[in-house]
C-alpha cells in the first residue's frame, strides 16, 4: 500500500519504462494485404482507403521490393479477376490472377511467405462467398469449389492458404484436398471467427467483392456473439486449422483475448479496411497523430492476444520500428 508502494517508480525514467513494457511490436508480427487486379495496366488508388492501391501484375515489382526491404515477412493476396461467374471459375483457374501473382512474386523474391485469401466472393458474379441458389448461399456445394481453389493456389506456390468464406466444414474439406494432392505440409490460417461486420465496406470497394443482394449474415457471425466464436474456433482446430483468425480486430479484442486464453494456439487478428480508413480519415483531418495511433492500436491488438496482425498499416509500422 501507499506510501511503501509507488507505481510511478517504474514510470519515472524512459529506460525503465522500456524494461517493464509487457508487449512489444516486432516487424515479424506483420502481414500485409495486397490487391491484384487483372483489369488494370497501372496501379490504381483505392478511394475509400487513402494510401492503398490495386496493382496490375506488371507493376508489382517495386511494391514487393519495398515490403521485403522493410523486413515484412508475409503478404496476403486478394485477386480481382477479369471474369466473374456463378461457379467462381477464375478462382481455381491455373492461369487465374492469384496463381499468376504468386508466380510473379516468387520471381522477385523467396523471402516472403505468400498467404492466399481463399474465398469466392471476388470471383462470383453475385459477390457472395458461396454457390447461390435463389437467394440462399449453399454450404456443401461450396466446399468443393473451395477445395479446388486451395489446391490450385498451392500448386501455384502459395505458402499458406487462408479460407475466409465461413462455410461449415470448410477447413476439413480443404485440409483433405491439400493432403490428397501432396500438400500435407501447407498450413491453413482459418478466418475462424469472422463477423458480419460493417467495417468491411472499404474492402468491398477495394476488392470489388460487394454482393448483389442480401448480406453475409447467413454465414458470417453476429457481432453480439462470443461463445459462438469459441465454438467456431474449436471446430476449425478440430478440422485441421494451424492458425485461427479473429476478424475484425479493434472492436473484437475481447474475442481475441478469449480465443488466445482458451486454446493457446497461434492467433491472427485482421485489422480490417474500415479500421484503416477511420484512422486515415481522422489523421487527414488533422484530428489525431496517425503514426502514434497506428502504433497504439496495433500494439493493443497484440496485447489482447494476437501473435500476428494483418494490417494495411504494415509498411508504416515497419518503418516506425526501423527508425525507433
Ligand atoms: C472475403 C473477405 C472480406 C475481407 C477479407 N476477406 C470481405 C467480406 O467478408 O465481405 C475484409 C477485409 C477488410 O475489410 O479489410 N473474401
Total number of β-strand segments? 12
Average pLDDT reading:
97
CA-based shape: globular
CATH superfamily membership, which one?
Answer: Aldolase class I
Class from helix and strand fractions? alpha/beta
Helices and strands, in order, run as HEEEHEHEEEHEHEHHEHEHHEH
How does the major sheet shape up?
A: 10 strands, mixed
- How many separate structural domains? 1
CATH class: Alpha Beta
Report on the architecture of this protein:
The longest helix has 17 residues, at 140-156. Helix 4 packs across helix 5 (170-180) and helix 7 crosses helix 8 (253-263). Helices cover 38% and strands 17% of the residues. It has 11 helices and 12 strands. Strands 1, 2, 3, 4, 5, 8, 9, 10, 11 and 12 form a 10-stranded mixed beta sheet that branches. Strands 6-7 form a two-stranded antiparallel ribbon. It has one domain (21-323): Aldolase class I (TIM Barrel, Alpha-Beta Barrel), CATH 3.20.20.70. The model has no long low-confidence stretch (mean pLDDT 97). It is globular.
Features:
12 strands; alpha/beta; TIM Barrel; binds ligand PBG; 38% helix; 11 helices; 324 residues
Amino acid at each position: 500500500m501507499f506510501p511503501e508502494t509507488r507505481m510511478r517508480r517504474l514510470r519515472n525514467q524512459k529506460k525503465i519504462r522500456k524494461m517493464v513494457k509487457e508487449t512489444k511490436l516486432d516487424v515479424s508480427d506483420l502481414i500485409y494485404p495486397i490487391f491484384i487486379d487483372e483489369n488494370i495496366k497501372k496501379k490504381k488508388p483505392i478511394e475509400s482507403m487513402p494510401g492503398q492501391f490495386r496493382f496490375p501484375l506488371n507493376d508489382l515489382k517495386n511494391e514487393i521490393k519495398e515490403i521485403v526491404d522493410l523486413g515484412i515477412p508475409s503478404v496476403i493476396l486478394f485477386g480481382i479477376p477479369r471474369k466473374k461467374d456463378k461457379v467462381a471459375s477464375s478462382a481455381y483457374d491455373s492461369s487465374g490472377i492469384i496463381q499468376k501473382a504468386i508466380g510473379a512474386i516468387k520471381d522477385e523474391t523467396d523471402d516472403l511467405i505468400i498467404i492466399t485469401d481463399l474465398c469466392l466472393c471476388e470471383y462470383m458474379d453475385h459477390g457472395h462467398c458461396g454457390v447461390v441458389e435463389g437467394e440462399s448461399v449453399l454450404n456443401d456445394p461450396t466446399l468443393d469449389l473451395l477445395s479446388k481453389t486451395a489446391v490450385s493456389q498451392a500448386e501455384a506456390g502459395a505458402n499458406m492458404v487462408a479460407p475466409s468464406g465461413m462455410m461449415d466444414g470448410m477447413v476439413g474439406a480443404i485440409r483433405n484436398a491439400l493432403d490428397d494432392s501432396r500438400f500435407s505440409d501447407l498450413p491453413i490460417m482459418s478466418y475462424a471467427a469472422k463477423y458480419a461486420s460493417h467495417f468491411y465496406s472499404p474492402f468491398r470497394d477495394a476488392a470489388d467483392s460487394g454482393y448483389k443482394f442480401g448480406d453475409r449474415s447467413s454465414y458470417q457471425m453476429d457481432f453480439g456473439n462470443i461463445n459462438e466464436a469459441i465454438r467456431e474456433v474449436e471446430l476449425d482446430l478440430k478440422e485441421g486449422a494451424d492458425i485461427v483468425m479473429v476478424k475484425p480486430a479493434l472492436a473484437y479484442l475481447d474475442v481475441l483475448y478469449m480465443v488466445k486464453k482458451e486454446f493457446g494456439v497461434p492467433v491472427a487478428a485482421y485489422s480490417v479496411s474500415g479500421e484503416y480508413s477511420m484512422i486515415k480519415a481522422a489523421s487527414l483531418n488533422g484530428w489525431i497523430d496517425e503514426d502514434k495511433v497506428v502504433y497504439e492500436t496495433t500494439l493493443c491488438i497484440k496485447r489482447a492476444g494476437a501473435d500476428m496482425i494483418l494490417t494495411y498499416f504494415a509498411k508504416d509500422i515497419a518503418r516506425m520500428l526501423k527508425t525507433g
